[in-house]
Design brief:
Elements lengths: L2 H33 L1 E4 L10 E3 L7 E6 L2 E3 L5 E5 L2 E4 L9 E5 L1
Antiparallel strand pairs: 1-7, 2-6, 3-4, 3-7, 5-6
Length: 102
């Protein structure tokens, strides 16, 4: 069988797989938006604290807002416990730190 014939057979399968992935992503996105928990952690910013405690367990971090910008999980911040977010730096008093998670 030629490469062209193989591609002709494989292409519909590939499109089907990509369609399923897209639908799964839509479901995940919809669930995340509906059930996400926004939490303001600004009161824990005190010039030395790098570890922030949430009210509920963090299953997945959606967004980390810091002073109007975004922090990247795995770069500037990490989930380090069921209810714990650790930053690589200590925000100062008055900084705005908000976490959206599910």
């Amino acid at each position: 069988m030629s490469v062209k014939e193989q591609e002709r057979i494989i292409e519909p399968v590939r499109r089907g797989i990509m369609g399923v992935r897209g639908e799964i992503a839509k479901v995940k996105a919809g669930f995340s938006v509906i059930n996400s928990l926004p939490e303001n952690l600004s009161s824990q910013c005190d010039n030395s604290n790098k570890v922030f405690t949430t009210d509920r367990d963090i299953n997945s971090i959606l967004v980390i807002h810091y002073n109007g910008g975004l922090l990247t999980e795995g770069v500037e911040a990490n989930k380090t416990g069921d209810k714990e977010l650790t930053l690589l730096f200590a925000p100062i008093s008055g900084d705005d730190l908000r976490l959206k998670y599910i």
